[in-house]
Amino acid sequence: MNDLERIDDYFSGRLPVEERARFESSLETDSALAEAVAFYLTARQAAQNEARADRKARFETLREESGPVRQLPARAWLAMAASAMLILGLGGYWLFQRQTPSAAEMADQYIHQNFSQLPTQMNGQTDSLQAGIARYNKGELPEAGAIFNDLLQRNPADDRARKLAGLVALRTGQYNQAIDHFHRLSERTDLFANPGLFLEALTRLKRGQPDDLREAETLLKTVIEQNLEGKTEAEVLIEKL
After folding, report:
1. How far apart are CA 217 and CA 219, in angstroms?
2. pLDDT at 99 over 60
3. Among residues 94, 121, 217, 230, which is most buried (max CB within 10 A)?
C-alpha cells in the first residue's frame, strides 16, 4: 500500500486501530508523510470546491435552458414547498442518523484515545511487564501479548498482566479472549481499583454480537452504581447508547 492509499484509508476510517496508531506515530517523525498528508488534504478540498462549482454551473445551465418559470396556482406552490420541506426534513434526519456514531464506533474511539499507548515506569527498571508494555507501545501487539500471557501462566493472580493481556486481545480483535480476561479480572475482590467490568463492557460494545449491547449497558450501569473504576467514562458512554 502506497502512502496516498494509506492516507486515504486513514481519513476514510478504513484503517484498523493499530494501523491508525502507527500512522499517527509516523506522522510525528516522517516529514515526507506529513507533506503527503498536506497534499492529500489540499487536493481533497480542491476537488470538493470544483465539484460544488460544477454543480452550480450545471444548475445555472439547466435554469437558462428551461426558460421562464411557468406560473402555477398558489395552492400548487404551497404543495410543492411542503413536499420540499418534508424531503429536507427527512434528509436532515438521515444525515443526523449517519453522523451519530454507533456503539462500536464509540468504543473504538475510546480504545484509540486511551489504549493506543500505555504508561511506563520511569525508574529505569526493565522487568518482563515493562518489556511487554514497550512492545505494546511500539505497535508490536502479538509480541506484547506473548509476554503478558507468559506472565499469567507463571502467576495467574497477576492482575496487571491480566488487564494488559486483555487489552492486547481487544486491540487485535480477539474479543472472546478479551472478555474472558476482563471478566476474570472483575471477579477479583482484593483489588483497590478494578476496571474489569468497564473493560468488559467496552469490549462487548466493540464486538457487537447479539445481546452485547444489552449486556454492555448492564455492566456500565453496575460500574456507575457501585462507583467502580471507569465510572466517569461509563456515564458518558451510557448517555450515548
Report:
1. 5
2. no
3. 230
